Amino acid sequence: MFSRRRFLKFLAGFGAFGTSTAAYGFGEPVFRLSLARYDLAPARWPADFPLKIAVVADLHACDPWMSLDHIDAIVNHTNALNADVIVMLGDYVAGCRHMTRRIPAESWAAVLAQLKAPLGVHAILGNHDYWDDREVQREGQGTTAARRALEAVGIPVYENDAVRLKKSGRPFWLAGLGDQLAYVPAARFRRIRRIGIDDLGATLAKVTDDAPVILLAHEPDVASRVPDRVALQLSGHTHGGQVRLLGWSPVVPSRYGNRLAYGHARFNCDVVVSGGLGCSIMPFRLGVPPELVLVTLGGSGPAVS
User: Fold this and answer.
1) What domains lie within the chain, and their CATH numbers?
2) Confidence bin at 5 (pLDDT 50/70/90)
């Protein structure tokens, strides 16, 4: 089976058809921005408790594919959704090797600081936020530059932690899972699996009452272990496969394949996987344009647009 890297390179060089396809695919990350809407009624969410959640995932800030001007436009679009709460699902740093400049964390964080919602802006980290930090990788511990930059502008970052919020006097919990692929073993140990810092049990243990829970988890595969105590899991990481043909992604960084490649799925809880905004490996998207996500809970039932 093709890896994602080999598949994207194959598409980019695929003859005459590939020329037009590649032109479209390389332009899509810069010129397209879509909105995916999900109206859900999870079993563990009160039907009479409406909540709008705006989701920002996988920015991968770099020039020219995710410039500060582009991030600023995304911030404006997000604010215009008038969500109750905004969540950011990690991978703020560049994940693409084909770029002209890495954007410093302090710069993209300053733009993200303009996000506004009544119940605040809340963040978790992704694997690239860890992988890009050489000091943290070398020491096997420590606070990443991405986390320091977000917290410096007043955006809280959750790693195996939870916060209790209220809307109109009604409480709910946001629980943020530590990244599941945070540490890459040294070169001589490449056969060893990447090491995560996620602790699902400790995270949910910080939920101290029976108010409904929304779990933020960068990689979606944890869904198989999430108990039905959780109403909704929000994830990114996959980019929808970054190439999606007729609703099918040929290459997906998930052991569940297309079940957790993109969109709405059900395990013990409802799961929404964002297609994300930036690119990994290659600055190329086809059939899954960059997207913001708006999830509305407390509705009459599942609907997607």
Assistant:
1) 4-304 (3.60.21)
2) low
